[in-house]
Write a structure and sequence with these properties.
Strand content: 15-25%
Largest sheet: 5 strands, mixed
Structural class: alpha+beta
Number of helices: 6
Oligomer: single chain
Radius of gyration: 64 Å
Helix content: 10-25%
Length: 233
């Protein structure tokens, strides 16, 4: 019971301490009360901007405005004097002083000097020749056609081994005939291996008549056929 009583008294004392400031407000400090109730002063206004700087631009007076002459605002201290030289005497009618070399004595009245000098006739137009077509350096000709231009023909020697083996046939070669008609390049297309060396050795000695194209010698690629046939077979 004593504990309950003491707790009750404790709550009463605390409540009195809380109610005293609310009832007797005049006992609070005036300065703290005013600071609580009044709003803070506004911030000071910003400083005014600096005045704009005025630039003084001197405009040179113009004497001509839209093609019209205007009077100057100030009288100039010095005035420039412009002098023009006298024009030479006209030579259209009176002629040139001292005469023109090769002219008529006394001249012709009313005749212009420019009109008296004869003008040369314009040169004839240049005739541009059409470019000639380029001649090819190498052409291909059939074997039968090129055979007609053969000047020197060396017959091949029949290989003894091929003769003993009764081997015969045709060896096909590709030849490049130079501009002077000699064989420069020789390649095998087909043929029996025992007959090819003899055929190439013989064809390398052949000479053709030079082939002309547009009156110019050219190289020719052609096919050469060498026939090996056994006699009495």
């Amino acid at each position: 019971m004593a504990i309950v009583f003491s707790g009750f008294m404790w709550f009463v004392v605390v409540g009195i301490l809380i109610l005293i400031p609310l009832i007797w407000t005049e006992t609070l400090p005036a300065a703290s009360l005013m600071s609580m109730l009044t709003a803070p002063p506004p911030p000071p206004p910003p400083p005014p901007p600096p005045p704009p700087v005025q630039k003084i631009v001197k405009v040179a007076p113009r004497q001509f405005d839209a093609g019209r002459l205007t009077a100057p605002k100030e009288i100039p201290k010095m005035v420039a004097i412009i002098r023009e030289d006298d024009l030479p005497p006209s030579s259209a009618i009176g002629g040139v002083i001292g005469g023109v070399p090769g002219g008529v004595p006394g001249g012709i009245s009313g005749l212009s000097v420019l009109g008296a000098i004869p003008t040369a006739a314009p040169p004839p137009p240049k005739v541009v020749e059409a470019p000639k077509p380029a001649t090819p350096q190498r052409i291909r000709v059939g074997g039968n056609v090129q055979l007609a231009n053969l000047i020197k023909k060396v017959n091949p020697v029949y290989p003894p081994l091929a003769k003993q083996a009764r081997i015969q046939g045709v060896v096909h070669l590709t030849a490049v005939i130079s501009k002077d008609g000699t064989i420069q390049n020789l390649q095998v297309i087909s043929g029996h291996p025992l007959l090819v060396p003899a055929a190439m050795e013989a064809v390398k000695q052949w000479i053709y008549k030079p082939t002309l194209l547009n009156n110019e010698p050219v190289e020719v690629i052609t096919q050469v056929d060498v026939n090996f046939t056994l006699s009495g077979s």
